Records
---
Amino acid sequence: MAVGAGGKKGQVTPHMNVTPLVDVVLVLLIIFMVVTPLLSKQFWLELPKQEETKTATPEENKSVVLTVDKEGALRINGSPIPKAELKDRVTRYMAARPDKVVYFDAADDAPYATTVEAMDIARQGGAKTVAILTKKVVQ
């Protein structure tokens, strides 16, 4: 009951109760504070270090490079290879290499299904890492 209000004597004046509103706002604040750190996504990317002082000659470069051209033809180190022989060839290359890395290069307009299938076959052939090349390979 309000004392000294301008209303009639003995009449109760209405007051807004903000306690439930404050409770709800504080609960929402706590929920957002807990959920916000969980929303950040991290994507770790390992980029190869590029040496600018020394350029490797084809004899020194013993990397295995799997290439898919725009027609979907597969090549390993520049030599064409049928898809049926890809797994066996990669298995032979990986048996001689301690790092088990296949570098993968595809043309921009290469068929998507063929590129994914080539990477899967390379993994089945024993490649532990399929590294995507960011620059074109000179062959």
---
Amino acid sequence: MNVELYERVWMWAASLLIAAFLGTILAMTAFHAITPPSHFETVDPSNLAANPEFGSPGVRPGPDGGVVVTVVAEMFDFSPNPIEVPAGRPVTFRLTSADVIHGFEVVGTNANAMAIPGYVSQFTVTFPNSGEYLIACNEYCGLLHHNMVAKLIVKKEAR
């Protein structure tokens, strides 16, 4: 009789844990609108040179008063390099890869994304202070992965 009771207790405990996990997912979806992304943007990685945006990566003014930085990652280089952006304004990074999966980490900040061939990754960050940052590939991409770095220069705007 004790074995059956012991098994029932663990079955109820496991059922309660599963219900709690599912309840958390449903609550986040219903009350906080946290859902998996439903929109993604693609680009042809074999023909990036003909793409109007990724054919000439660089920094350009954004629609919200910030800047948009288009970056192409490929073995073993980030283009453009260096990247110069203004301090105190939103910077939207748009990334893709021409060959394999690469990482894009602005060291010392929370700016971190993956550059995946065929897909466009996008994130926005504001750098409050001027300075120089290292950009590192944090996804192993081949034998010279450790040399895949770039420089981000954040400049104070002249007023």
---
Amino acid sequence: MTHPIIIDTDPGQDDAVAIMMALASPELEVLGITAVAGNVPLALTELNARKICELAGKPDVKVFAGAIRPILCNLVTAEHVHGKTGLDGPILPEPKMQLQKQHAVDFIVDTLMERPAGTVTLCTLGPLTNIALALIKEPRISSRIKRIVAMGGGFFEGGNITPAAEFNIYVDPHAARLVLDAGIPFTLIPLDCTHQALTTKARVEKFRTMKNNSGPAVALMMDFFERFDVEKYGTDGGPLHDPCVIAWLLRPELFTSRDVNVVVECESQLTMGMTIVDWWRVTDRKPNATVCRGINSDGFFDLLTERLAKLA
């Protein structure tokens, strides 16, 4: 029996790897991929999502374009990390598969209302704008979502776009607050966890030597993507954030976590987008998220390598 998911994403090299990992996993049924503005503008994120599906040999996956900007803030992008295309590294051909005409928010709402309640998981790899807009348009979906598994935030590790905030939450903090407050089962995979999943040279070489198109392309993506974090953090390789979301669905035992309360700061300009994680439970606020703090990085990369090798 497969686990139906919707992937909401702003590709991004690490998003690309996460999408390919999901498409290579027979346990998961990817109902659709919804693009949001984030790492690069929407016109590029929806294009990149289609390129990735074709690279993975899965051109039948439906891709939908969603929110062009955050709910209240001006759009902040991350070309300084991902390059001008968002997928700098390999040269990928223009996709032949067409973008779906339906808006991503409508697809999310319709799918959740049509499918049995508690069966569809939302895998969010970027800002939470599309999910928040779907909840605003049809509040009844909050009780129909099985779980949201999100890459975002940071607490002891701090931020990566400001000293206090991680990029995905910072881009649309109001959306993140709305989604976290909706009472939906929520797993948050923050920088504290993803910064342990490093693309070392040995790990990247395993992608480079794969006998398919996807592996070598991923190696080229990592060659470009990791340079920013290697320089910033002084580590052997950069953190591979978004595939942790898919890995958590497939192998939750690879992660250590705690059920705690998370609040998103939306008022202070200094700490806008900060995720205030009550890790030590010093308040009486009820837990609203399972927050991951640790990952078995060897197990994670073994799983990722095994899955990507299966692609055509």
